[in-house]
Design a protein that fits this description.
The structure is a single chain. This protein has about 150 residues and is α+β, with helices and mostly antiparallel strands. Among the domains are: about 30 residues; about 60 residues, OB fold (Dihydrolipoamide Acetyltransferase, E2P) (Beta Barrel). It is about 20% helix and about 25% strand. A five-stranded mixed barrel has the order 3-4-5-7-6. Strands 1-2 form a two-stranded antiparallel ribbon. A hairpin with a 4-residue loop joins strand 6 and strand 7. The protein is flat, with a radius of gyration of 35 Å. The N and C termini lie far apart (about 100 Å).
Amino acid sequence: MGRSQETFGKKEVRTRKEKKRKEKEQKRARKKNEGKKGSFNDMIAYVNEFGVITSTPPDPDKKSVVDAESIELTVNKNSPENAPDPVKKGVVTFFNNSKGFGFIVDKDSNQRIFVHANSLQEPVRENDIVTYEIVKGVKGPSAIKVRLFKE
């Protein structure tokens, strides 16, 4: 008669799984016995006059009637005078002519912006002050319409 193919490790794993399954089943049975089903009224939440969620219904005496026609709805339109200037000013901190790219540091926000040689309208060098516009690039902000700043 041959020996069992089951090793000690396999037996141990099987017994642990069996033990875990039984514990889970006992836990489920305990929850079922202890847990009570909540009614629909227990699940309802109310919002008071301050916008706080409560479990108590609002007081009908505090109820006020609002005339729907007295409510004004307006839309703020973006006017051209409120729009920020798209042209920014910055300093070229690095530019590699052979590779055709570099970086500009914005004067206001100190943000590093990528610039490609195709976006240049004039040749630039390091430490030049330039004006540019920002667009969303593949890996972050990119500068376009880059030209030297002339006072």
